[in-house]
Amino acid sequence: MEGVVAISGKKAFEKRAGRKLLRATGLLREYRLLAFEQPDLLACHNGAVVGIEVSRLFRDEGETGRPQHRAYSQRRQVLRAAQVRHRLETESTLDLMVEFCNGSVVEEGRVPELVDALLEAAQEAPEEVGEQRTLPEDPVRRAGLAGVVQAVRATRLEGREGPLWGMVSEPWTDERVRALVQLRLDKKEELLARYRTDGVLAQWLLLMCDGLPGRRPEPPHPCAAPGSYRSSFSRVFVMDFTGRHWCELALERDGRPG
Protein backbone atom coordinates (compact mmCIF):
# COMPACT_ATOMS: atom_id res chain seq x y z
CA MET A 1 0.00 0.00 0.00
CA GLU A 2 1.42 3.35 -1.00
CA GLY A 3 2.61 5.50 1.85
CA VAL A 4 2.77 2.62 4.35
CA VAL A 5 6.20 1.76 5.72
CA ALA A 6 6.74 -1.92 6.48
CA ILE A 7 7.74 -2.66 10.07
CA SER A 8 9.76 -5.72 11.08
CA GLY A 9 8.47 -8.31 13.54
CA LYS A 10 11.08 -7.14 16.05
CA LYS A 11 9.99 -3.51 15.76
CA ALA A 12 6.32 -4.47 15.96
CA PHE A 13 7.02 -6.37 19.18
CA GLU A 14 8.96 -3.43 20.62
CA LYS A 15 6.16 -0.97 19.83
CA ARG A 16 3.54 -3.25 21.39
CA ALA A 17 5.70 -3.63 24.48
CA GLY A 18 6.27 0.11 24.78
CA ARG A 19 2.57 0.80 24.33
CA LYS A 20 1.71 -1.67 27.09
CA LEU A 21 4.23 -0.06 29.41
CA LEU A 22 2.94 3.47 28.89
CA ARG A 23 -0.68 2.42 29.20
CA ALA A 24 -0.11 0.29 32.31
CA THR A 25 2.01 2.82 34.18
CA GLY A 26 0.12 5.95 33.09
CA LEU A 27 3.45 7.79 33.01
CA LEU A 28 2.72 9.36 29.65
CA ARG A 29 -1.04 9.44 29.22
CA GLU A 30 -0.90 11.06 25.81
CA TYR A 31 2.13 10.22 23.74
CA ARG A 32 3.52 9.46 20.32
CA LEU A 33 5.58 6.30 20.13
CA LEU A 34 8.17 6.18 17.37
CA ALA A 35 10.13 3.12 16.28
CA PHE A 36 13.81 4.01 16.33
CA GLU A 37 17.12 2.21 16.03
CA GLN A 38 19.06 3.05 19.16
CA PRO A 39 17.22 3.23 21.51
CA ASP A 40 14.41 1.01 20.25
CA LEU A 41 11.62 3.57 20.81
CA LEU A 42 11.15 7.27 21.33
CA ALA A 43 8.15 8.41 23.37
CA CYS A 44 7.25 12.06 22.84
CA HIS A 45 5.04 13.93 25.32
CA ASN A 46 4.55 17.69 25.65
CA GLY A 47 7.89 18.39 24.01
CA ALA A 48 9.77 15.93 26.22
CA VAL A 49 11.44 12.90 24.66
CA VAL A 50 12.10 9.60 26.41
CA GLY A 51 14.23 6.88 24.86
CA ILE A 52 13.01 3.37 25.64
CA GLU A 53 15.11 0.26 25.12
CA VAL A 54 13.05 -2.96 25.02
CA SER A 55 14.60 -6.31 25.81
CA ARG A 56 13.19 -9.79 26.21
CA LEU A 57 14.22 -11.58 29.38
CA PHE A 58 14.53 -15.37 29.27
CA ARG A 59 14.44 -17.24 32.55
CA ASP A 60 17.58 -19.29 31.88
CA GLU A 61 19.76 -16.55 30.48
CA GLY A 62 23.37 -16.90 31.47
CA GLU A 63 26.85 -15.72 30.64
CA THR A 64 27.03 -18.16 27.72
CA GLY A 65 23.70 -17.32 26.12
CA ARG A 66 20.04 -18.32 26.26
CA PRO A 67 19.38 -22.05 25.85
CA GLN A 68 15.67 -21.39 26.25
CA HIS A 69 15.69 -19.05 23.26
CA ARG A 70 16.37 -22.02 20.98
CA ALA A 71 13.62 -24.06 22.64
CA TYR A 72 11.14 -21.17 22.34
CA SER A 73 11.95 -20.61 18.66
CA GLN A 74 11.47 -24.28 17.91
CA ARG A 75 8.14 -24.36 19.75
CA ARG A 76 6.88 -21.40 17.75
CA GLN A 77 7.93 -23.24 14.58
CA VAL A 78 5.97 -26.31 15.66
CA LEU A 79 2.85 -24.32 16.60
CA ARG A 80 2.87 -22.30 13.38
CA ALA A 81 3.10 -25.47 11.30
CA ALA A 82 0.32 -27.13 13.31
CA GLN A 83 -1.93 -24.09 12.96
CA VAL A 84 -1.43 -23.77 9.19
CA ARG A 85 -2.21 -27.43 8.57
CA HIS A 86 -5.08 -27.55 11.06
CA ARG A 87 -6.81 -24.60 9.38
CA LEU A 88 -6.85 -26.56 6.13
CA GLU A 89 -8.90 -29.21 7.93
CA THR A 90 -11.43 -27.08 9.84
CA GLU A 91 -12.78 -23.54 10.19
CA SER A 92 -14.04 -24.20 13.71
CA THR A 93 -12.66 -21.81 16.32
CA LEU A 94 -10.49 -23.85 18.64
CA ASP A 95 -8.05 -22.63 21.26
CA LEU A 96 -5.29 -25.22 21.64
CA MET A 97 -2.67 -24.70 24.32
CA VAL A 98 0.40 -26.94 24.36
CA GLU A 99 2.26 -27.41 27.62
CA PHE A 100 5.83 -28.29 26.72
CA CYS A 101 8.14 -30.09 29.11
CA ASN A 102 10.62 -27.84 30.86
CA GLY A 103 13.56 -26.95 28.58
CA SER A 104 12.73 -29.61 25.99
CA VAL A 105 14.23 -29.39 22.49
CA VAL A 106 13.83 -32.01 19.74
CA GLU A 107 16.09 -32.77 16.83
CA GLU A 108 15.16 -30.56 13.87
CA GLY A 109 14.45 -33.63 11.76
CA ARG A 110 11.76 -34.71 14.22
CA VAL A 111 9.79 -31.46 14.18
CA PRO A 112 7.39 -32.79 11.47
CA GLU A 113 6.74 -35.89 13.63
CA LEU A 114 5.80 -33.66 16.55
CA VAL A 115 3.45 -31.63 14.36
CA ASP A 116 1.82 -34.84 13.07
CA ALA A 117 1.33 -36.11 16.64
CA LEU A 118 -0.25 -32.85 17.79
CA LEU A 119 -2.66 -32.80 14.86
CA GLU A 120 -3.63 -36.41 15.49
CA ALA A 121 -4.40 -35.54 19.11
CA ALA A 122 -6.41 -32.52 17.92
CA GLN A 123 -8.86 -34.86 16.19
CA GLU A 124 -10.33 -35.39 19.67
CA ALA A 125 -10.98 -31.68 20.21
CA PRO A 126 -14.34 -30.84 21.84
CA GLU A 127 -17.34 -30.20 19.58
CA GLU A 128 -19.61 -28.19 21.90
CA VAL A 129 -19.02 -24.45 22.24
CA GLY A 130 -17.51 -23.69 25.63
CA GLU A 131 -16.34 -27.26 26.20
CA GLN A 132 -12.76 -27.82 27.35
CA ARG A 133 -10.82 -31.03 27.09
CA THR A 134 -7.31 -32.37 27.68
CA LEU A 135 -6.41 -34.17 24.46
CA PRO A 136 -5.15 -37.78 24.48
CA GLU A 137 -1.43 -38.34 25.01
CA ASP A 138 -1.24 -41.47 22.85
CA PRO A 139 -0.16 -39.81 19.57
CA VAL A 140 2.75 -37.98 21.21
CA ARG A 141 3.76 -41.06 23.19
CA ARG A 142 3.68 -43.33 20.13
CA ALA A 143 5.96 -40.88 18.34
CA GLY A 144 8.46 -41.20 21.19
CA LEU A 145 8.06 -37.53 22.10
CA ALA A 146 6.46 -37.82 25.53
CA GLY A 147 9.46 -36.01 26.98
CA VAL A 148 8.70 -32.97 24.84
CA VAL A 149 4.97 -32.35 25.33
CA GLN A 150 3.35 -32.69 28.73
CA ALA A 151 -0.26 -31.93 27.77
CA VAL A 152 -2.48 -30.34 25.12
CA ARG A 153 -5.69 -28.60 26.20
CA ALA A 154 -8.39 -27.61 23.74
CA THR A 155 -11.38 -25.28 24.09
CA ARG A 156 -14.18 -24.89 21.53
CA LEU A 157 -15.17 -21.26 20.97
CA GLU A 158 -17.90 -19.58 18.95
CA GLY A 159 -17.36 -18.63 15.36
CA ARG A 160 -15.61 -19.93 12.26
CA GLU A 161 -12.19 -18.31 12.57
CA GLY A 162 -10.12 -21.48 12.52
CA PRO A 163 -7.87 -23.09 15.17
CA LEU A 164 -5.36 -21.03 17.12
CA TRP A 165 -2.34 -22.85 18.57
CA GLY A 166 -0.40 -21.44 21.51
CA MET A 167 1.79 -22.59 24.35
CA VAL A 168 1.58 -22.66 28.11
CA SER A 169 4.70 -20.94 29.42
CA GLU A 170 6.80 -22.54 32.10
CA PRO A 171 6.65 -20.80 35.48
CA TRP A 172 9.62 -18.84 36.78
CA THR A 173 11.23 -21.06 39.38
CA ASP A 174 14.88 -20.04 39.13
CA GLU A 175 16.18 -18.81 42.46
CA ARG A 176 18.80 -16.79 40.58
CA VAL A 177 16.26 -14.26 39.32
CA ARG A 178 18.09 -11.31 40.87
CA ALA A 179 21.36 -12.38 39.29
CA LEU A 180 19.60 -12.89 35.96
CA VAL A 181 18.06 -9.40 36.00
CA GLN A 182 21.37 -7.80 37.02
CA LEU A 183 23.15 -9.69 34.24
CA ARG A 184 20.80 -8.22 31.65
CA LEU A 185 21.19 -4.73 33.11
CA ASP A 186 24.97 -5.04 32.94
CA LYS A 187 24.80 -6.13 29.30
CA LYS A 188 22.54 -3.20 28.39
CA GLU A 189 24.87 -0.84 30.24
CA GLU A 190 27.45 -1.40 27.53
CA LEU A 191 25.00 -0.06 24.93
CA LEU A 192 23.74 2.91 26.88
CA ALA A 193 26.59 5.29 26.09
CA ARG A 194 26.30 4.56 22.37
CA TYR A 195 22.79 5.90 21.94
CA ARG A 196 22.50 8.51 24.67
CA THR A 197 22.01 11.82 22.89
CA ASP A 198 21.40 15.38 24.02
CA GLY A 199 17.91 15.28 22.49
CA VAL A 200 16.79 12.42 24.75
CA LEU A 201 16.03 13.61 28.27
CA ALA A 202 15.76 10.18 29.88
CA GLN A 203 16.62 6.61 29.03
CA TRP A 204 14.27 3.88 30.16
CA LEU A 205 14.77 0.14 29.92
CA LEU A 206 11.82 -2.24 29.64
CA LEU A 207 12.46 -5.94 30.30
CA MET A 208 9.66 -8.13 28.91
CA CYS A 209 9.83 -11.45 30.73
CA ASP A 210 8.70 -14.54 28.88
CA GLY A 211 6.33 -16.86 30.66
CA LEU A 212 3.85 -15.87 33.31
CA PRO A 213 1.26 -17.95 35.12
CA GLY A 214 -2.27 -16.57 35.15
CA ARG A 215 -2.07 -15.43 38.76
CA ARG A 216 -0.37 -12.29 40.04
CA PRO A 217 3.39 -12.93 40.08
CA GLU A 218 5.20 -13.46 43.34
CA PRO A 219 8.93 -13.72 44.03
CA PRO A 220 11.06 -15.03 42.48
CA HIS A 221 9.27 -13.75 39.35
CA PRO A 222 11.04 -10.66 37.94
CA CYS A 223 7.77 -8.67 38.04
CA ALA A 224 8.03 -8.87 41.80
CA ALA A 225 11.81 -8.91 42.15
CA PRO A 226 12.71 -7.08 45.38
CA GLY A 227 15.85 -5.12 46.20
CA SER A 228 17.88 -2.62 44.22
CA TYR A 229 19.98 -3.05 41.08
CA ARG A 230 23.01 -1.32 39.62
CA SER A 231 22.12 0.66 36.50
CA SER A 232 22.75 3.99 34.76
CA PHE A 233 19.31 3.96 33.09
CA SER A 234 16.95 6.65 34.36
CA ARG A 235 14.24 4.07 35.05
CA VAL A 236 13.98 0.30 34.58
CA PHE A 237 10.68 -1.59 34.32
CA VAL A 238 9.89 -5.30 34.21
CA MET A 239 6.62 -6.42 32.61
CA ASP A 240 4.99 -9.69 31.65
CA PHE A 241 3.82 -10.23 28.07
CA THR A 242 0.17 -9.49 28.86
CA GLY A 243 0.98 -6.05 30.23
CA ARG A 244 -1.12 -6.79 33.33
CA HIS A 245 1.77 -7.16 35.76
CA TRP A 246 4.76 -4.86 35.99
CA CYS A 247 7.14 -3.34 38.47
CA GLU A 248 9.75 -0.60 38.50
CA LEU A 249 13.13 -1.66 39.81
CA ALA A 250 14.88 0.33 42.49
CA LEU A 251 18.19 1.51 41.06
CA GLU A 252 21.48 2.39 42.64
CA ARG A 253 24.54 4.11 41.20
CA ASP A 254 27.95 3.50 42.75
CA GLY A 255 26.28 1.81 45.69
CA ARG A 256 23.88 4.72 46.30
CA PRO A 257 20.14 4.79 45.55
CA GLY A 258 19.36 6.44 42.21
Largest sheet: 6 strands, mixed
Strand content: 25-35%
Give the number of DSSP strands: 13
Averaged pLDDT: 83
Evaluate the radius of gyration. Answer: 21 Å
**Oligomer type:** single chain
Shape type: elongated
Helix coverage percent? 25-40%
Structural class: alpha/beta
Secondary structure: elements and pairs:
Blueprint: H1 9-25, E1 32-35, E2 41-45, E3 48-57, H2 67-89, E4 94-100, H3 111-122, E5 132-134, H4 138-142, E6 149-156, E7 164-168, H5 177-195, E8 202-209, E9 228-230, E10 235-240, E11 246-248, E12 250-253, E13 256-257
Parallel strand pairs: 3-8, 4-7, 8-10, 9-12
Antiparallel strand pairs: 1-2, 2-3, 4-6, 5-6, 10-11, 12-13
Helix pairs in contact: 2-3
Quick overview:
With 258 residues, the protein is of the alpha/beta class. The protein has helices spanning 9-25, 67-89, 111-122, 138-142, 177-195, and strands spanning 32-35, 41-45, 48-57, 94-100, 132-134, 149-156, 164-168, 202-209, 228-230, 235-240, 246-248, 250-253, 256-257.
Tell me what the structure shows.
The chain is of the alpha/beta class and 258 residues long. It is 29% helix and 26% strand. A six-stranded mixed β-sheet has the order 1-2-3-8-10-11, sandwiched between helices. A four-stranded mixed β-sheet has the order 5-6-4-7, covered by helices on one side. Helix 2 (67-89) crosses helix 3. The radius of gyration is 21 Å and the shape is elongated. The termini are far apart. The model is unreliable at 1-7 (pLDDT under 50).
